[in-house]
Amino acid sequence: MASSSTPSSTTSAPVSNPSVAPPPSNKPTRILACVLCQHRKIKCDRNFPCSNCTKANVKCTPSTPAPARKRRRPNQDLQERLARCEELLKEYATEKPEGSVTTPRASQQPAFDESYLKWQPAGQLVRDEGSMRFIDNPMLSSVYDELRAMRQIVDSDDHDDSTSDTAPDENSDLLLGDGSPNIKIETLWPDAAHVIRLWQIYLDRVNPLTKIIHVPTLQPYLAEAVGGSQSLPKNVEALLFSIFLMAVVALDADECQNLLGYSREEALQRFSSGVRLALLRLGFLKTHDLTILQALVIYLISLQGRYNRHAAWILNGVVIRIAQKMGMHRDGETLGLPPFESEMRRRLWWQIIMVDSKYAIFSGLSHSLLPRNWDTKPPKNLNDADIFPSATEPFQDREGPTEMIFCLLIYAFAKFLVETPGFDTMFLLTSQSDFVSERDGGGPPEQEMIEYRRTVETLGNNLLSILDKYCDPLAGPVHQMAVNMRTHIIDKIMELITPAKHQPEWGGEVRTLKDNTFKIAIGTLEHNEANYISTKDKGFMWFSLAHFQIDIFMYMAGQLCHRTEGVLVERAWRQVEVVYTFHPELFDTNNKLHAALAVFILKAWRKREETLTQRTGHRPETPFYVDRLRTSMPNDDYKSEPTPPDPYTPAALAVGAHTGIPDNNLDSFLGYLDASALDWDMFGNQINGGAGGSSFGAFGMGPQVEW
């Protein structure tokens, strides 16, 4: 480097004085292949004319070497910015935040204070190659500005080999499959007639409960979509695939067969593949686009009730990180975004919050992955027609009913869950508070119970205030759905939060913690039944069916194997009929989980049949679901095997027996028992006629000797 920077008369003369001829070079001249041989990519003998051209009887044209690429001088502006960037990085590396000398333990961390947002910088949205990223560190924001300016300098100096193609994302296959190139996405697109029908079903049944898309903005693409997906923007293609998928989720089997001409399962598989393939080809993990995120969130909602909820919750964590990278956790007004974009970001962010809270509860987790310093405001009470991309003034709430009513209600409940950490744990403590003698510890402090009841009352008042301001039951089915949902939420929470001794069954059929857990399971299924009935004729039953928890139903079925009399037992058998009526997929005993459930139901019915016969003197009529299950079960031994002894307990109970955890505690966690996570392959051997109940008995599930 030193020698190159030192002036020299021998090296500088050719540059400073072009009249001086350069010294002659002893390097031999390179002979290139002729033009024809280069074009045909064959070996040339480098004689002119060459042998190949002579044989072809064509003119042999010598090729000329490409002009030497001009050596670019260092760009002074680029060097200055590079130096500035290095200074910023050094400053960032040595910077120490205030209070970083000592780090308190997690248990000593102060509670989160909303005032933190008042002095925290709003952050910055930066655009890069068509995508948008959020950075809230001021130092890194400056570094990024310098790097972006440097890139612009380089791009302006050299346009050689420029391309707009997006490199494939090698990380996406970890989440959505490998995106096989053998599948042509065009073959997954619905027929022209089906495009409009599926779109309309989505607008009628799904959009009122989600409000993720802006219908007037997306609707013009439907004319192009009818002719296929080739002319659509790729992000819109992914979004429409997710919309088609959710439309199929909102259909029952008969409706789907009549509409599309093929089964619902085939349609779900087809459009799920379309969504995944479209997202993979877009590189959704590194392409920060609002439309792509909308498609991903709708796809995530479609998984509810038909996919492993733990895996879905993990995928939702990815969605949260993408949204956070786009700065959606900061309100659009704070970031200086246009009113329309701010409002659409609010709708999407709050839907992500609701989905995350829901999946977290289903997965047995009380904490979500939401960033702690988010300040995105709730969406406004506005119809899609009230907001438009060209708006320059912030939108204000419309007075009276709008199509946002259900979402506003759900978002208020999501806010309650986020702001009340440990609320689900409090439910469990409440259910055990009157059975202290059965536990190895005391119940929750009474003062905490009182505070939580007050928060529930506040939630009820907030939801009622929303209904009073924005709801009109005569305005349409979604408003009726909102009224029913508010009642359902409050009734279910109050039932869970009310101590057992204050409930009418106390002292009668509820004497132990197991009795109370059995009653809670029945009440949960009864709430589901009320939702099924209230949404059946409104087109929203898919929403209610998606909240069915097979673990709770399996727990109740296991309890019926030894509980034979009483009001609770009659209520439970009523729910068995309701569940098999609204969930016909449970008759598919090729699914090992459904087959295990069928074993419990058949054994419980055998016990009930004996009890009713002894009581009345005649054999009771066999329910339709028992007949169907007997027909579908592959092994006759399960249809006549003796009923297991008392009592049945969830799978976690068998684990507790080996870990020293008191058995009576674990029934409270029935909502968190994931039967689908068990190794039902063990169970498959017994279904096929194998003996050996002991191997399966280690899980506390299925026929075994020690119950």
UniProtKB/TrEMBL annotation:
Q: Where is the composition biased (Polar residues)?
A: 100-110
Q: SUPFAM superfamilies from the entry?
A: Zn2/Cys6 DNA-binding domain
Gene3D superfamilies attached here? Answer: Zn(2)-C6 fungal-type DNA-binding domain
Q: Where is this region: Disordered?
A: 1-25, 94-114, 156-176
Q: Where is the composition biased (Low complexity)?
A: 1-19
Q: Which InterPro entries match?
A: Sec_Metabolite_Reg, XnlR_reg_dom, Zn2-C6_fun-type_DNA-bd_sf, Zn2Cys6_DnaBD
- The residue ranges of the Zn(2)-C6 fungal-type domain are 33-61
- Its name, as the record gives it, is Zn(2)-C6 fungal-type domain-containing protein
Naturally occurring in which organism (per UniProt):
Podospora bellae-mahoneyi
Q: What is the lineage of its organism?
A: Eukaryota, Fungi, Dikarya, Ascomycota, Pezizomycotina
